[in-house]
Amino acid sequence: MSMQLSPAIQELIHALRLLPGVGAKTAQRMTFQLLERQREGAMRLAHALTTAVERVGHCEQCRTLTESSICTICANPKRRDSGLLCVVETPADVMAIEQTGQYQGCYFVLMGHLSPLDGIGPEDIGLDVLAQRLHQDGLHEIILATNPTVEGEATAHYIADLARSRGIKTSRIAHGVPVGGELEFVDQATLGHAFSGRKLID
Amino acid sequence: MSMQLSPAIQELIHALRLLPGVGAKTAQRMTFQLLERQREGAMRLAHALTTAVERVGHCEQCRTLTESSICTICANPKRRDSGLLCVVETPADVMAIEQTGQYQGCYFVLMGHLSPLDGIGPEDIGLDVLAQRLHQDGLHEIILATNPTVEGEATAHYIADLARSRGIKTSRIAHGVPVGGELEFVDQATLGHAFSGRKLID
């Protein structure tokens, strides 16, 4: 970075690099665009950042990001009465599932996954809170929707054991060939899942 | 976007989309990462945005972005005494040229290019200021480094006419095959420039 740039410009470039996927060149382009043409947008972004950091916390029941003490999904009686609890890793997973319109139950958001090597144990992902929730009346199925990665699978197994010990039905979302995908381009592991998880056609 | 998201989260996603190259998915990923893992970073970015918008203006002499009334390059006597003035479109162009370490003169930053269809005329890109500067003692060469686009070339021609009327030597940076590039992948226009601008080998 040239030493000719003003400190305030340099600091903005550095701060933008904190965003995921933003490197030195992109941060510089963003900085110049904001200062040359989008000063109101820059102020709006600054305000949105401050407001979100100040107001957004975690839902007391499902741990997702929300401005209220309890998120809109947990606060919905129809969803609570469904008796379904879907366990996911992140709030983005909740959004992805909500967009399908297929699921009408509640969520539990781990905000991560078990990763002993990084020192992330059961309590760091709220499994003590989840364990208490398994005593809840009317809960009849836990749907495990953690990612199909090594850590996601290990986390799913851990929670399945927990639920089994309380006698609660537990399921894992299906893995297989993506809709619209071509077999030729699907990886071995996925194709293996597609075969082992095959369904009889009536 | 799901209606389940808190207003503060939605507003942050919208505000991040103002950044160049950031679409809906990326803005959402940035938002969740900031709120889940980088709250200090988010506050630092908010502060950097506010500070930059408040402090950064334009250099009175060359129009580049700076916190001072006159930028460090214009304030440098050695550069002023060089008698060279390089005309570029943006502050990013200044940075790119500075990084070569090859140029020791001053700059004039148009902050755009002539574009009659968009209503951008000579005064919008500071050519009235530039015209006054051509009277400056000791100025002996204008180097035109606007982009090799239709608008950039038109702008270069306009400024060349202005400089010619004042009897000041004017040059255009060389266009040709990029160093390290392969002829086979170079476009026709560039290859045409490379031939018409060929140099005799002594």
UniProtKB/TrEMBL annotation, chains A, B:
**Name listed for the protein in its UniProt record:** Recombination protein RecR
Q: Which InterPro entries match?
A: DNA_Rcmb_RecR, Rcmb_RecR, Rcmb_RecR_Znf, TOPRIM_dom, TOPRIM_RecR
Q: Which UniProt keywords apply?
A: DNA damage, DNA recombination, DNA repair, Metal-binding, Zinc, Zinc-finger
Q: Tell me a GO biological process for this protein.
A: DNA recombination
Query: Where in the chain are the C4-type zinc fingers?
Result: 59-74
SMART domains per the UniProt record, alphabetical: TOPRIM
Every copy of the Toprim domain together lies at: 83-178
**Single Gene Ontology MF annotation:** DNA binding
Keyword set includes Metal-binding: yes
The protein's job, in short, is: May play a role in DNA repair. It seems to be involved in an RecBC-independent recombinational process of DNA repair. It may act with RecF and RecO.
The protein's gene is named recR
To which protein family does this belong? Belongs to the RecR family.
Report the Pfam families cross-referenced here: RecR_C, RecR_HhH, RecR_ZnF, Toprim_4
